[in-house]
Amino acid sequence: MRVMAFAAHPDDELVCAGTLAKYAAKGHKVAIVFITNGEVGSEIYGNEEIARIRKEEARASAAVIGAEFYWLGVRDEFLYTDEPVRRMILDVMRQFDPDIVICPDKDVDYHPDHIAAGQLVWDVRVMTTVPNIKTGHKPCTKIPMVAYQDTVMGLNFMPEKYVDVSDYWDAKAAMTNCHESQKGWLEAQYGVTHLEFVRVHTMFRGFQAGCKYAEAFKFPRFFPMRTESEGLL
């Protein structure tokens, strides 16, 4: 199985990090695409410096689970569904040729960059296999499944599937701790540490799922859509 997660910002992969860690540990191929450069995520550093820092933090996070790392470098807070970015998303998806794509829920998420990320994946999911839409890589071998990941703290999100990630909490915590620059930022903005933020959310879904830690997903319906013999764990 080839699993590709789209993170609108560096650290958005943490919403599904336990699931990605679980896939990777079971021998599946995992990739994380970081769409924007995170250039506004600091009260200390300027745009270029924090973008550079967050790129390396994102790279380190992906490396924790051996995931392939893709950095698209779009400006933070200015992600739109225009043709150049759509082609960028299409091409990176073709480059990896995923079976499953995990992305934000375009219909209920609170953040415009998250919404745009989910919309972009939705927009190109069928295009991935169309030969007459040319990009730098050849078309995918199949239309990937799409899974919407949970929203921050689960607001407005009604799960269809829970993944027990209790055995992968340490990997998720390690990925969280890679984003060192965001510890002070979250405390300054929201009065909570980064790890605390992630832990509470993952425990909250775990309580619902009857385990210590869990992550939640939904599966949007579209045509044409494949039924996998092995879907999301």
Topology:
Elements: E1 2-7, H1 17-25, E2 29-36, H2 47-64, E3 68-74, H3 83-96, E4 100-103, H4 112-124, E5 145-149, E6 161-164, H5 169-178, H6 181-190, H7 194-209, E7 214-218
Parallel strand pairs: 1-2, 1-4, 2-3, 4-5
Antiparallel strand pairs: 5-7, 6-7
Helix pairs in contact: 2-5, 3-4
Describe the structure.
The chain is of the alpha/beta class and 233 residues long. It has a single domain, classed as LmbE-like (Rossmann fold). Helices cover 39% and strands 17% of the residues. The chain has helices at 17-25, 47-64, 83-96, 112-124, 169-178, 181-190, 194-209, and strands spanning 2-7, 29-36, 68-74, 100-103, 145-149, 161-164, 214-218. Helix 2 (47-64) links the parallel strand 2 (29-36) and strand 3 (68-74). Helix 2 (47-64) packs antiparallel against helix 5 and helix 3 packs across helix 4. The chain starts with a strand and ends in a 15-residue tail after the last strand. 45% of the residues are buried. The model has no long low-confidence stretch (mean pLDDT 94).
